[in-house]
C-alpha cells in the first residue's frame, strides 16, 4: 500500500480507500460486508468511507462493527452528512448536522470521525450556518477535519473562505472521477489545488462499467450492480454508463489494455490515481478478493502512448461538462421537475 496526505493539512490516507456506499447493509450479507473490511485492513488500507445515508445508517453500523478492536489511531474514518433522513430543505442545517453527527458516532462506535463531509450542497441553508456547525463539531472534538462531496468549484471556494475565518480544517473534496467521468478537471481540481484541498474520488471504475463486464447489446449480468435492487440507479444508470455507445467505447479500451498486458480495471484505477491532485480513490467490493486485485493498480506504470490510444477510444463518450457536478445536476433536475 502507498499513502499520501489528503490536502495540505489533512490526515495521511491510503491511496486506495474502502467505501461501503452500495454494499454494506444493502447488497451484501453482513458476514460478507465484514469480511471485505477485514480484507481491506489486511491489504494495508487505512481509510474507510461511509455516510449516514448509506443503507439508512446500516453501512455505518457495519463499518463500526468491522473496526471494533482495531487501533483507532491506525485508521482514518470518514463519513458524511446531508442525505441521511432524506435530502432537501435543511439538509446541512446546524440542527441536522448536530443530530446526524451524534447518530453517526454512535453507529460507528467511535468518539470522533477523522473526516466529516457535507454530502451535496444545500441551497436552503446559509453556508455560514453549515460551516459554523462544522466548526462547533471540530471544537467539540467530535470531528478532526471536514470536507465536501460533489460540490461545484464556486461553492468549494466560498466554503474554504469561511473555513479559514472559523479556523476549520477543510481538507477534502469527494467527487466522482473516472476515465469516463471527468467533470472535475476544468474547474474543481484547479480550485481545490489552489486552496490546498485534496481529492478523494469515488467510482473510479464508473460503477463497474470500466471492469468490462457490461457488453453492448447484451443485458447486464445477473447479480451485477446494474440490476441490484438498490444502487444501479445512483451509480450507473443516472450517468448513462450503460448506453451502447459507452459500452462499445469501453470494449475498445479494454482491447487496448489487454494488448498491453493489463486489465481495464487495473488501468482505470491507476489512471484515476495518477498525478498529485487525487490523494485516494474509494473502491467498493462485494468479495474480499476484489480488493486484492485492485491493489495491482498501485504497481501499474502508465505508458503515455497507451493512454493516448485509450483516450482516443473513449473520447466520443467522455463527460467533461463542469455543470454536471452532482449537486448542480440534481439542482437542475429539481428545477425542471418544478417547472413541469
Automatic annotation (TrEMBL):
Lineage: Bacteria, Bacillati, Actinomycetota, Actinomycetes, Kitasatosporales
Cellular compartments per GO CC: cytosol
Keywords, alphabetical: Oxidoreductase
Domain (NADP-dependent oxidoreductase) ranges: 16-313
Lineage: superkingdom: Bacteria
GO molecular function, one term: oxidoreductase activity
Protein name in the entry: Aldo/keto reductase
Gene3D superfamilies in the cross-refs: NADP-dependent oxidoreductase domain
Entry-linked InterPro entries: AKR_Detox_Biosynth, NAD(P)_OxRdtase_dom_sf, NADP_OxRdtase_dom
